[in-house]
Design a protein that fits this description.
single chain, alpha+beta, 5-stranded mixed beta sheet, 2 domains, 5 strands, 316 residues, globular
Length: 316
Amino acid sequence: MLLRRLEARLAHVRSMKPPGVADAADIQAEFTRAALDVPRPPRVERFPLPRERVREKLRAGTPLLHGEPVVVDVQHAAELYSRLRRVVAAMHLSTSPVQSALIAPRQVVEAARDWDAPGDPGRLFGEAFVQHREHLREMAVHAAADPDEIVALSILAVGPSLRAYARAIGPLVPTGDAAWTRGYCPICGAWPLLGELVESQQARRLRCGACGWGWAALPNACPYCGNAGATAMRAPRPVDDATPTVHVCERCRGFLKLVTAREPAPAELLGFEDAATADVDAEATQHGYRRPAGAGFTLELSIPESEWAEDLASLD
């Protein structure tokens, strides 16, 4: 079902978008196919999360995965990582400026042909899961590998695991305007990849760039810096419901892409939807706006050492 939807969207983008955007969509479609093609879904280890603890964490602005005994499925991440390497090894990319904002830029494709994951796979994918980009960069430097490539590929590899945990615990997040008032994800702490205006709901929701979860956006407020004044998130030109637009913040110079949809995009296809509208991002960056780097909240997990040992032993 997801593959059919992906192919239909890709055909539409190829027919409607300029070559640079179509190329970007092609790249992201290949990564999406690789993720959907892994023979089994990632394993999710359940852990107790009482409702009172949920309420306390959300009131404090703490994502639900923070401090919990989450076990990352290292085998699944390693399998997907291997598939991603094969995908990028076969790619031939242009140098379109539209593609420069993608999670898999040209230099990732070029270097991944002869690159192996550095060091301890449990640590690599664990750091990717909590989006500790600086730790990933340190591992890359230690292994004499390119830090940008390590970050991009390892984070892609743990995407299905993050989405699986979001599906498992996301329903615990209460709904309503005051349920979550932060700009970062209530599940994993990542910044939103884009905003959706779902026609059936007539409300703007933010969609997480890491786990795909969606939550209500505060009206006329910047998700990045919290600015709610006259210079908060606004569209610099009239919004056309048929075309993605960008809302920008004049205080932090952040931007958020807003798309109109009949229904929320599946979490697995969010990366593709982002790439399919990369021309909007390019326009924003040309005017000096940007997406913030890193995550809005830095996760730490409480992980039993024995669990890592079991996962690592199974890779030998």
